Amino acid sequence: MLDDIREKIRSVPGTFSVLTGPLADRIGHMLSGVSAPVAVKVFGPDLDKLREIGTEVQRIAKEIPGFEDAKLDQQSSISQLRIEPDRPRAKAYGVAPGHLTRSLSTLLGGEEVAELLDGENSLDLIVRLPENLRESPDKLRELLVETESGARIPLGLVADVREAKGPNVIYRENTQRRFVVAIKPTVRDVSTLALQLQENLRDKLALPEGYFFTIEGEFQAQQEATRRITTFSVAILFVIAFLLYGYFRVPFFALQVLCDIPLALVGGLVLTFFMLNNISIATLVGFIAVAGVAARNSIMLISHYLHLMQHEGEGFTRQMVVRGTEERLIPVMMTALAAGIGLIPLLLAADEPGKEILHPVAVVICGGLVTSTLLGLGVTPAVFYAFGRKAALRSIEHESSASH
Question: Which are the contacts of 205, defined by CB distance < 8 A and separation ≥ 6?
């Protein structure tokens, strides 16, 4: 385990550092990570400069309401025993820096040489220097190392052995050193705040050459999913418009059905504003469900009007529209009530664990069902009667599927 930790903190080729702090502290720092909805990652070569930039990022982030809880990466300076080979002198004595580093790794970190069996248990036999030699710079300088000619010389002749301060851990990503500022938002609209933070950092943060930052977090997945849903929704709307045209055989009714959908979404938006105050992926799924219900109601009403005109001798009159609406009132109401009543438990489960996704869906659908039912039963017949005479006659003349 000690070898693994040393490998993590080795930052410069040919440099070997031995931590002198407690092992538990080293492991704790090594395993510490950043877990936050928003993380600003600063990349660059110098650790001190990265921390300086990270502190400035923290200050800028705290100026944004909702991003006050911004914390710096858990890096700190701890005592180290640093061994840095002197390459010119090592070459003069015939000592390869790489061979020296491997030898020191074995002597200080240990190397498994055998496996001991104790009944059913197995123990690794590791060979390394005693602790009093491993942690004493003076004694390490006197440690004999072998040259290419087979001679032995003190380590102090070919390497600088000293006590120093260094970071407890060095994080890397894509071969770049990084420093992270973790932000836990106190508001729901993280995407907007993240974009504002990005603009503020670009305007106020002066980065030296070779340094750059990225903003990452859960909001990225939400933005990507939102873009994907929007793209697919637009494509599906074109497909639905094409299918509606084939069903009614006139463009007017296809356009009317599509225009009825936004009316149904009004209730979902209003209830979302009061109960959630946030548009998430879950609410978008709810809007899609409400749009389907609204389109179904409109298609059912318009097709029934055309059926009455085609097969029951009704003319394009107000009485026909009222009759058709009354005959489809029960199916429309039953659809809304069945779905709405089933979602009431989820609507009231705002703070219950496990309902984080289902609750926003229920809020949107319940609000949308109210407006899709009430406005649909009022607006769809009114628009049909006011503007749909010619379209209805052409649809019947073309013997559309909606009129049968």
Answer: 53, 56, 57, 60, 213
The residue type found at 348 is L
**Rounded Cα–Cα distance for residues 305 and 373 (Å):** 18
Burial of residue 34 (CB within 10 Å: 0-12, 13-18, 19+) is middle
Mean pLDDT to the nearest integer, 255-268 = 88
Residue labelled with tokens 């990005």: 198
Is there a contact between 47 and 178 (Cβ–Cβ < 8 Å)?
no
Structure tokens at 341: 């009543």
CA 195 to chain CA centroid, nearest Å: 14
Q: Is 250 helix (H, G, I), strand (E, B) or coil?
A: coil
Q: What angle do CA 307, 312, 316 make, to 5 degrees?
A: 70
Q: pTM of this prediction?
A: 0.57
Please, which pLDDT band fits residue 224 given cuts at 50, 70 and 90?
confident
Give the mean model confidence (pLDDT) for residues 273-289. 83
Burial class (CB in 10 A: 0-12, 13-18, 19+), 291: buried
Those residues with Cβ within 8 angstroms of residue 29's Cβ, 6 or more apart along the chain or in another chain: 74, 75, 76, 168, 169
Q: How far is CA 117 from the centre of its chain?
A: 48
Residue 330 above 50 pLDDT? yes
Tokens 């903003």 appear where? Answer: 215
